[in-house]
Structure formats: structure tokens, C-alpha cells
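Appendix B. Chain record.
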Amino acid sequence: MSSGSSSRSSSGGSQGGRPRKDPEERRTISHGLYLNQKEKRELEKRAEAAGLSVNELLRRSALGGEPISETAERRTLTELRSIGTTLEQLVHQTASGKVEAQTQYALADLRKAINRLR
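C-alpha cells predicted for this chain:
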């Protein structure tokens, strides 16, 4: 047994996993909320767009936190890079004279990417 695992097992915790939170940081209180189906779908849609759980979205909204997560920001950057790559390919194709069908496909891809960002 290594020295790192013996310190954990002496505290009664299992090996691996996340370290325990400070008792003051643990979320142990539940607060109920009644919604209709339309409200529930809207919250789920907003939470997914922000890359958060519904609970985290509500917590941040109620307590003044930023609702956009790093996941949503990364997703947006990925989409923007994809758009930039497609534009770069269009520039090269235009210069080489290969524009007709490939341009239509590229523009369709751009429209899809822009719609995903909305």
C-alpha cells in the first residue's frame, strides 16, 4: 500500500474520487420550485445552452452569478473556428476557380454553424 492511499483510508473515505468539500461549502438544503411544462422546457433549454445543469443555472441566476459556463464558451469558440476554417477554404477555392458546388456546400455549413450559435 502506498503512503498516499493510507492517509485517505485512515479518514474513512474511499480511494479515488473527488476530495470532500468543507462542511460550509456542501449543499445540503433543498428548496422546491413548481413549474409548468413550458417553464420547465425553457429552463432546460437555457441550461443546455449555457452548458449547465438546471440547478446550477437557477443558483447562479438567483445569486447573481454568471450563467455562461466555460463549456458554452468553448463550444462557441469551436464553432467560430469552424466558421473561420470554412471561410479560409472558400478563399482558397475562389482563388483556384473551384467555386460552384463547393461554395454552396460551404455556405450551407456556415448557415448551420451560425444557427447553432443563436
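Further analysis of this model is presented in Appendix C.
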